[in-house]
Amino acid sequence: MNQIVTDWRDAAPLSRADFEAAIRNVGVERYHDKHEFHKLLHGGKLAKHQVAAWALNRYCYQEAVPRKDAAFMSRVHDRELRREWIHRIHDHDGLGEEGGGIERWLVLTDALGFPRDYVTSRRGALPATKFAVEAYVRFVVEQPLVIAVASSLTELFAPSIHRERIVGMLENYNFVDDHVMAYFKRRLSQAPRDSEFALAYVLDNARTREEQEACVAAVRFKCDVLWAQLDALHHAYVTPGLIPPGAWRPGE
C-alpha cells in the first residue's frame, strides 16, 4: 500500500511541466462532465422541470463568481494583477450596455418559466447548492493568493463541457434555442483566456512543492464544489426525488 504524503515541506518542487500535468490530471479524474446528471442533461434524458431545476440552482454559482472575484481583488496589491482580473467581474456582471454572463443566464431561466425576482432571490435553490457556492467564495477569501487563483483552474476543462452542452441541449430540447444558449457560446472564448492567464500565474508563483501541492488540491476542491451541486440536483430531482423543504417544487 502506497504511503499518502501530506507534508511536502522538504520535497523538491515539481518541474513546470509536471506541475501543469498534475493540475490538468485533476480534470481528467474529477471534472463534473463525468457526473451522471450531466450525462442525462446533455443526452436529452431529463424532463423540462429537471432542466429548470438545474438552471435555477446553477444561477447561485453564476452569481457567486463575480463576488469571489471581487473578494480576491480586494486582497491584491499588484495593480497589474487587478487590471487583468477585473474583466472577470465585467464578464459576469456586465459593463455599460453589455449585460454580462448573469444576464445571459437569466435569459435561460426566463425560457424555463421562472420569474427573475425568484431566481435572483435564490429562495428556491437547494440548501446544498448554496452551501457549496458559499464554500467556494470563502475559500478564495481565506487562502493565499496563488492557491485562490488555482481554484479557478477548472476553467481549463470548461470549453469541452460547454461545446457538449450546446450541441446536446439544442438537439434534444425544444425549449432552448441559440439565443437561450448564448451564455455557453460566450464562455467558449472567455474561459480559455481566463484559464491561460491563471495557469501561467500559478505556474510562476507556486515555487515550493508545498505550494504546488496546495494548488493542485485547490483544483480538486473546486471540482468537489461543482460535483456536490450535481449530487444535490440528482438526489432531489432525479432519484430518489427527495426535494428538501423550501426548495423549488415543480408545479408550485
Automatic annotation (TrEMBL):
It catalyses: 6-(2-amino-2-carboxyethyl)-7,8-dioxo-1,2,3,4,7,8-hexahydroquinoline-2,4-dicarboxylate + 3 O2 = pyrroloquinoline quinone + 2 H2O2 + 2 H2O + H(+). It comes from the Bacteria. GO terms for biological process: pyrroloquinoline quinone biosynthetic process. Residues 23-231 form the Thiaminase-2/PQQC domain. The keyword Methyltransferase does not apply. InterPro entries: Haem_Oase-like_multi-hlx, PqqC, PqqC-like, Thiaminase-2/PQQC. Its EC number is 1.3.3.11. Pathway: Cofactor biosynthesis; pyrroloquinoline quinone biosynthesis. GO terms for molecular function: pyrroloquinoline-quinone synthase activity. The keyword Phosphoprotein does not apply. PANTHER family: 4-AMINOBENZOATE SYNTHASE (PTHR40279:SF3), PQQC-LIKE PROTEIN (PTHR40279). NCBIfam families: PQQ_syn_pqqC. Ring cyclization and eight-electron oxidation of 3a-(2-amino-2-carboxyethyl)-4,5-dioxo-4,5,6,7,8,9-hexahydroquinoline-7,9-dicarboxylic-acid to PQQ. Belongs to the PqqC family. This is Pyrroloquinoline-quinone synthase. The gene is pqqC.
